[in-house]
Amino acid sequence: MTLRGRVPKHGPQHQNLPVNFWCAMSLRGQVWKYGNNVDTDVIMPGRYCHITDAKELAKHVLEDLDAAFAGEVRSGDVVVGGNNFGCGSSREVAPMGLKTAGVSCVVANSFARIFFRNCINIGLPIVESPEFASKCAKGDEVEIDLEKGELRNLTNGAKAAIPPYPPEIRAIIDAGGLMNYIKRKIAKV
Amino acid sequence: MNLIEKILAAHAGLKEVRPGQIVTASVDVALANELSGIAAIEEFRRVGATKVWNPEGIVVVPDHFTPAKDIRTAEICKKLREWVWEQEIPHYFEVGRGGIEHTVLPDEGLTLPGQLIIGGDSHTVTYGAVGAFACGVGSTDLAAAWITGEIWLKVPDSIRLVFEGRPGRHCFAKDLILFAVKNLSVEGARYKCVKYEGSAVKALHMTGRFTMCNMTAEMGGKCGYIEPDETTMEYLRSTPARDRKFAPLRDDPGTPFGETREFDVEGLEPQVSCPPSPDQVVPVSAVPKVRLDQVFIGSCTNGRIEDLRLAAEILRGRKVHPRTRLIVVPGSQRVYLQALKEGIIETFVVAGGAVSTPTCGACVGGHMGVIADGESCLSTTNRNFVGRMGHVNAKTFLANPAVAAASAVAGTIVHPDSVLTPSRVAVP
Ligand code: SF4
Prior knowledge:
The structure holds two protein chains of two kinds.
Chain A: E1 2-3, H1 21-24, E2 26-33, H2 40-43, H3 54-58, H4 69-72, E3 78-81, H5 93-101, E4 105-108, H6 113-122, E5 126-128, H7 130-133, E6 141-145, E7 150-153, E8 159-161, H8 167-175, H9 178-188
Helix pairs in contact in A: 8-9
Chain B: H1 3-12, E1 22-26, E2 29-32, H2 34-46, E3 58-60, H3 71-86, E4 91-92, H4 101-107, E5 116-119, E6 133-136, H5 139-148, E7 150-154, E8 158-164, H6 173-184, E9 193-197, H7 199-202, H8 206-214, E10 223-225, H9 230-237, E11 259-264, E12 271-273, E13 281-283, E14 294-297, H10 299-302, H11 305-315, E15 325-328, H12 333-341, H13 344-351, E16 353-355, E17 376-379, E18 395-398, H14 401-410, H15 416-420, H16 422-426
Parallel strand pairs in B: 2-3, 2-5, 3-4, 5-6, 8-9, 8-11, 9-10, 14-15, 14-17, 15-16, 17-18
Antiparallel strand pairs in B: 1-7, 12-13
The structure holds iron/sulfur cluster.
Iron/sulfur cluster is lined by residues 64, 100-102, 121, 123, 299-300, 360, 363-364, 381-382 of chain B.
C-alpha cells in the first residue's frame, strides 16, 4: 500500500489505518528539509502547548522555523533533519503536531532521545539515517518502505537501508505505539 | 558500574547492566505537570485504565501555565485536579502550595538517592543532583508507567565532566554548566549519562548542583548526576526526606567512563549564552552590547533562595534601569516565603522589579513576562531557542542571577563588578 497525493488539509488519512500501519506499507511524499538541532520549541512553540486539540495544534507546527510548512504540507510528506533533531522540551505535542499535519515519517542524521521515544510511542515512523538525510533536498519525492526497510529518493535515485530497530522497540512499533503495546501486555496477564 | 548503571540494574532486577542494553525497569517516581499530565491522562483513559499502579509514586505539579492564564488552561488544570482526586494521588501541589516542579520535588523530600525517576518534562534530569537516575519522557511514556509502574530504558553511555579550580568573582554553578554546554554543544551528551565532579563541583551547595544537573538537558544528556556526599546528606536531612529510607549509591572505584573532559575553571569569568542556542556561550566581557528590554530571574534553573539572594545583594539600594523591566519569580512557595522573611522580595520591589507567584510562566513563553517582536531579554533560565520566551524575533540571553541583577540595573549585559563598583567604569 502506498500513501500519496493531496488530501484535505489537516485531515490525514493515515489516522484511520490499521494500528500496525508502520510496517505494513510504504510511505511516499515530498521532503521538507531542515538543519541541525531543530528543537521542539520551534516544532511546537510554547505558546500553543496548552492546546489539546490535535488538529488545531497541526496548524502551528514548525511555525517558528518555517512559517509556510503548516499551510503547504501534504499528507505523506517527509520531514528530513540534520543532527539532534527534536532536541529540547519533552513536549509530545511536537511529534503529534507533525503527525496530525500529515507527516508520514521523520528522517534525520540523529535524534534527541525524548523526541525519538515520543515518535515511537505515538506511532510516527522515525528513521535515523545520516546517509539518506544527506541525499535529500527540499521538494524531493521520497518513498519509504518500512516493510522492506528501504529509503528511496525518487528524484535523484539515492537509496539507503533503514537500520533495524532493537527487538524491544520493534515490539512497540509492531503494536502500533506504546499504548497498544501496553494494552496487549495487560490483556495477556 | 557507575551509580546510574547500579540504579538501572537494581530497578530491572539484574545483577549488572552494560551501556546500550535495553532494560525494563520499575519506576519510583513518575512526575507530571499540567501539560504532560493532561495528554497522559487522555492516554490512560483511552486504553481503559482505571487505577494507577501506585498513587504514592505519582507526583503532579501544575506549573507551566498556572495560575491559569486563560480559560483553556483553567480547563486543563480542572481535569488534572479531578483525575488526581479520582486516583487519590497524595503528592499533588495546588497553586499556592507548590511552584515549579523541579524546585518543589527535592525540597519536599520526594526525590531520593538511588531512585529511578521519570517525568513528563525534559528538566527532570535535575534530580541527578541528589544521586538519583532521573530522565524526561513524553506523555505516552508517562501514561504507560502510571499503569504498569515500569518503563523501558536504554542503559546510557557515560561521560565524565571534571571541573577543577576556583571560579572568579560572581561566577557560579550556572557559569560552570554554561561553560560545559559551550564545550560540548547542544548535542555533546546526546543519549548519555553525564557525571559532574572535581573540586569546583564538590564546593557547590545543593542549589548549584541542581542548576548544573538541570542543564544536562541542554547538552542532550539522558541524565546527569553528582555522587552523594556530606553536602547531599545535609540537604536531605533538611527536607522531609529525613523520615524516609534510602541508601545513597556511589560509582564503583575505577569504573570506566566512555569519555572524560576536564575543565580548568580557575578564575573563570561569568558566562553568557547568546541566542539562538544554549551552546552559543561567551564570557560576559565579550557579549556584544545589547539594550535589554527585560530581565527575568527565576525558573527551575535559578529560582532557589540562594539564587534570589545573589540577585538581591546586587539590587539592594539600586534601581532597575528606566528602560528595562525586571521580573522575579521564586521557584516555589517555600522559596517565596523564605525570600519574604529575609526581606529579599522587598528589595526587588523597591528596586522597581515585578515579583510574581511561582510559575514557569515566562520561561516557556507562556505568560507573565512574554517578550515582544525585536525585544531582548536576559534570563536565568536554561533555553534561548528561537521563540522560546515569546516572539520569534525576540532574543534571549542566559546568565546567572548576579549577572542578571546587575544587567537589570545597567540596562545592558554587564559583569556585576561594573555595577557594584561604579567608579571602575566611570574612570576612562
Ligand atoms: S521553569 Fe522553564 S525549564 Fe523549568 S520546568 Fe518550567 S518551563 Fe521547563
